[in-house]
Amino acid sequence: MAAPNNTLLWLLLGICLIFISFGGFAILLLLYSLAFISGALLIVYNFGKQAIDIDVAETSLVVGQFGHGGIEKVKESMEPTTKIKNFDKRMTGASVIDDVLKEVLEYVVKDYIKTWYRQISDHDSFLVDIWQCAQKVIITFSNRSKEIDWMPYFTQRLVDDFASHIRLYRRAAEKTTVSKIEDNAGALESAFFDMEVEMENNMCRDLVCLDPEAERQYLQDLSEVLLYLLLPKEDFHNKPFRYIVREVLVNGIFLPTIDLLSDPDYINQYMAWMCYETSFTRETFLTVIRSSDSMEELEAVRDMVDSDIAKWRSKDTGGSDDTAIKQNLNSLMFLRDTCDMRIRRLKSGIGSHEQLIEGPDNLRYNSLYVLTLDEIFNNNVALQAFIEYMNNRGGQQYLFFYLNVEGFRAAAEQQISEMQKLTLSSVTAAEPDLESLRRAAKIIFDQYLSEKASSRLKIEPQYIKYTVAKMKNKMLSEDIFDIVQARVYQILHCEYYEDFLQSPAYMKLLGELGLLHNKGEDGDNLSMEDDGSAPTGSECSLGSAEDLLDTQFEDMGSDTVSIGSGSSATSAGSPSGDSYIHAQITHSGVIKEPETGKSYAVFAITVHKKDPYSDEEDVWDVYRRYSDFHDLHMILTEKFPEISIPVLPSKTVLKNMSQNFLEKRRKDLDKYLKVLMKPELLQNISGLEELMNQFLHTGIWEKHKSEFSRKMDTIVHPLKSASKSMGNVVKSVPDGVSRIGDGLGKVFTQKSMDQNKTRETMNQLKVGAGLDPEAGENIPLRIMLLMMDEVFDLRHKNQWLRRRIVAILRQLIKATFGDKINRKIVEHVDFMTSAEQMAEYMMAFRNSFWPNGVLAEPRVTRDESTKMRTRVLCKAKMLGSVPDEVRTLMGTDAVRKGVARVFQMFQHKTLNKRILYVVLEGVLVTLFPDNKFQTIFRTLHSRSTRVEKVDGNKQTPSNHESQLRKRQSKR
Questions:
Q1: pTM here?
Q2: I want to staple 656 with a disulfide (CB 3.0 to 4.6 A). Which of 553, 661, 929, 965 is the partner?
Q3: Alpha-carbon torsion 903, 907, 911, 917, what sign?
Q4: Closest CA to 569 of 692, 682, 679, 674
Q5: Membrane among the record's keywords (predicted)?
């Protein structure tokens, strides 16, 4: 308050001094100062007003000359929000796809663009430009896709690329196994890419798969090319925009997607999801546990089993469920013991089957099945093993001669019978047929019996003379080689067959046929019929302990392992209400036909049925063979695909008539029948009760087989009796015996060095390069051959087995679909690439990334134990998905090794990346056939140091040759 008072005092003091000094003149001076200031302000105001009026006049003149819309447009552009005008939002031309695409684009804009753009600006013009650019890209891509025929890619190139990938992995694994390097994974990948240079003709994808920076650079180059083809010109020439889009594609889409799809754990989950639930059985699960070479897998399963044992023991308090709880505990403890046994074997350094192939030990071969020599000839897998054994012994020419004569006899019988029919019906001359037979006989004679034969047999001269005399006979017969063949059979039996039974190869063969450690009381009495089938290897190895696995574990989620038989503990079809039907397989037996002498197993089913409003119960017995149950299973699969059909006990080639096996088969079939006869299932599934009534009544079942079941009969029978005799091979040839010299006669000759070199050369090329032209035209046969060749390694087996498999596959395809299968495949590919299916794919993508319209949370990292259990589950399901017919044809051990090969191939992330890039490149080459993508990829993949080494090795000899030429020219 002091400062204002002082100022006021000083102001009053100043005024007093002015009036004292100037008197009345001071008032005039004050008025003069006010008038001066007011006048100056008035003059400034007048000049400013005049200048404003001049500027307004000039501005009005300019606006009048150039229009009045500029300011309004600037004003509109400066508004905080703009109204987005409606424009054409059609993209693919299919409304079902456009609707889903529109939602996906809206979600992308909402979650990936607006989140950062709204922090910068509220204008929507940028969002509209982004939408229109994406729309133009989709339109260009969809129009390009509509012009492409995807059939050749899906049925030829894709299958060929995948089969070639398996071939590279198989060769690399073989090389790594031989070298025994400690870093197995790194050595395998290195060998894989070294061999890729040879297969792909100086092109290698190792940098893309192994070097992250090279992978990013590759994807950037590829994105540049795709943006050039898909983006509008004005957007592509906008460098900042193009670089931003490229980086978003590479770092936000390509790299994360490829990293996810190449993750072995993700692939294991996906393969386990693709396999049917019924493919997981206790037999396949125990087979995987007993053959696992991973300590981590076994320990993960064992930890889960220990946890489950603790849970079940906490419930073991007696009561009505005490029996079921004890059964579950017994099953779990048996599984834990199996894991512990396998872990101990791995720690001791013993592999999965090393104990089976050690040196001969006569004690080890006691109490084994004894296959007769005829049974070996009549089975594909057994004959293949015997051929390999004979090759090692150097006596393969005897076996090849015997099989050639079998084929000649069957063809000769066919040709002579046809000749006789023609002679009876007309006067047509039959001499050409006899001459063709004579030429075929001469081929066999020159190859094995003549003095200049390359594979001459050591046969007594009198037998050869007798054969020459019969060949000179005018009326040629089919038995001209019988006496020599009988002598060869004696040699095979005495000198080779008995030693074969004592060899490790025979024990391995029994394992493949599922006959190891399972000789019953009548184990020596084996035959090749359909019904009494021996159990598989995994079933046989369980022994008496397998009954402990009849109950199921608790449901542990998708990532845990469970064991179950799919059967119910209750008596199915139990009486309910006034009416009921109850069936039980009471006993089994063996019946021998007096006419043919063949024996087969039958199962007696006791049926109890009570009709409504009836006081009496009807009881009768019906007898069914295993083939009847198989037919029923096929009909159920055909008519009722919506229900979960229980697993039918598997069939194998050789039947076992022992009482132990028949009792086990009776129990398995009884469980199968009880599941089908559950009252709730019969009531809820329309038509099932009628079908079961037909099956359980005597005399009417054969009349109700479906067409599909009959077709399956034609498939299963050739698989069982594919090699009954070599005559079946010849009979399937249209030209009859005229092709023996080019067919069987060459199949069983000794392999020359040129043939081995040719096979090795073909093994280094892509798989499709080695296919026959005839097989290449048949789409399903080509696909099956490509897969089976590499998965089961058929090319390294005897060519007889491979040709036999081709013949069976042709018969299987013809019996199943006839000539319509190619059209079915074309229709299926068209359906998978149709607009409706594309919309389904887009919907699945939308629901995965935006469930209920909300961006999904990041994937939860799975612990290692869960990953290991998923590996076991995936292997068990893959093994269980192989049909029994394939096991019969290829052998149990070959199937197990093939499945293990495919599974192990997917456990290498770098190799998974390689096949993904191969698929991506194949799609782009197919999608843009006129843009030289193949050349682009070859240029990008030629940066590898492996390719440079190969080119340097090629250039070194050429430089050396040029230097020699220069020296010679100087001389």
A1: 0.65
A2: 661
A3: positive
A4: 674
A5: yes
> Partners of 599 in the beta sheet?
592
Contact between residue 756 and residue 434 where contact means Cβ atoms under 8 Å apart: no
Contact, 664 vs 649, CB < 8 A?
A: no
Q: Judge whether 915 and 173 are in contact, CB under 8 Å.
A: no
The answer to whether residues 605 and 624 touch, using CB atoms and an 8 Å cutoff, is yes
Q: Give the residue carrying structure tokens 């129990």.
A: 667
Count Cα atoms within 13 angstroms, Cβ side, for 626. 26
- C-beta pairs of 550-555 under 8 Å, 24+ apart in sequence: 550/327, 550/331, 550/671, 551/324, 551/327, 551/328, 551/331, 552/328, 553/308, 553/328, 553/331, 553/332, 554/308, 554/311
Burial class (CB in 10 A: 0-12, 13-18, 19+), 71: exposed
Cα 625 to chain centroid, rounded: 34
Query: Whole-angstrom Cα distance, residue 46 to residue 49?
Result: 5
Q: Predicted confidence band at 224 (pLDDT cuts at 50, 70, 90)? A: very high
Tokens of 32: 């003069």
Query: For 261-300, what is each residue's pLDDT tens digit?
Result: 999 999 999 999 988 877 888 888 988 998 888 899 999 9
Helix (H) or strand (E) holding 582: strand 580-592
DSSP of 893-960: HHHHHHHHHHHHHTT-HHHHHHHHHHHHHHHHHHH-TTTTHHHHHHHHHTTSHHHHHHHHHHHHHHHH
Distance CA 695, CA 673 (A): 11
Q: Residues 790, 170: contact at Cβ < 8 Å?
A: yes
Q: Are 599 and 657 in contact (CB under 8 A)?
A: yes
The alpha carbon dihedral of 725, 486, 411, 477 has a sign of: negative
Pair of tokens at residue 9: 């005092």
